[in-house]
Amino acid sequence: MFKRALVFSVSCVFAASVCAAQSMNKDLTDLATAERAFAATAVKEGFRDSFIKFFADDGIGFAPHPHTTRAELMKTPLQTGPRRVVFNWQPMFGDISIAGDLGYTTGPVLFTDATANPKPPRHGMYFSVWQKQSDGRWKVAVDMGSDMPRSVAPLDAAFTPSKRQNAATTASASDASYAELDQKLSTDIAQHGVAKGYLLHLDDEFRLHRSGHLPILNKADLAKYFDVGAAEIVFRFIGGKTAISNDLAFSYGEVMPIGSKEAKGYYVHVWRKDRSGKWKLVADVENDLPKK
Question: Are 216 and 207 in contact (CB under 8 A)?
């Protein structure tokens, strides 16, 4: 009798895990579809109108300082003349919370010169965190793009979900907030240096985006990027959000050189819990402020 009860209990847990994984995959597919619709609207209607339509009321963009994108764009006049630049992008990677309310996607961006004497196209990588609204629609919560030295992938590249989507994942409680996570990362960088500080927090599946560099996706490339002379930095948290399921969160704020009172740029971090319930850094996007 005990064996049958145990088998039944294990079967129920397995079935629940499979259902959760299937739900996450569907939610992530819906999120990627929303991203493609955003890009298609930008191609058709331009930057201003598309960003107003797809950003949340409190959605954050950087130009170069953080601002509520919809509110700022609503202040700008409608575009009446021909566009000088048309840009398009497509999602090629993404992840989502167990609750299906918070997720992110990233992928290649193509900037096409639409003037009479066009310059060669420019390339980039977008990075957007999305939050599901009370009406069920996805809206952008925070967005930060990075210029790339060349194309990272074609716009028709296949979408690849995070490896976590291929297996059931269970969130566990943690006292650490996303603000505390950024502070702990700053502390470890100060104590151990930039490269080791990051390695103490990075998930096995991670990405770092820096303008002028191709995305960094493995620890060997990370070590090359953060060489011995890399400047130590601290992160000054400004804001962020966490998923209802408490397994995925994002934060954003200022990047400060140690000993400086002025920011050198801004960051967006995405944290997710691993199978043991520990928060791990899965995405780190930074943009430096323009030099004065």
Answer: yes
pLDDT band at 70 (very low <50, low <70, confident <90, very high): very high
Beta bridge partners of 250: 241, 270
Binned at pLDDT 50, 70 and 90, residue 18 comes out as: very low
Partners of 240 in beta bridges: 251
To 10 degrees, the CA torsion angle through 157, 100, 50, 147? -50
Question: Residue 108's closest CA among 90, 122, 85, 95?
Answer: 90
Domain end marker among 145, 166, 187: 166
45 C-beta neighbours (distance < 10 Å), count: 15
CA 31 to CA 190: how far, in whole Å? 37
Q: How far apart are CA 24 and CA 185, in angstroms?
A: 28
Q: pTM (2 decimals)?
A: 0.89
Residue 173 lies in a domain: no
Query: Which residues, in sequence order, are CB contacts of 143 under 8 Å at separation 6+?
Result: 55, 59, 60, 61, 62, 69, 126, 127, 128, 129
Please identify, among 134, 166, 198, the residue that sits at the C-terminal boundary of a domain. 166
Residues 23 and 88 in one domain: yes
Element of type H or E holding 111:
strand 102-113
Chain centre to alpha carbon of residue 213: 17
Q: Is the dihedral of CA 105, 106, 110, 114 positive or negative?
A: positive
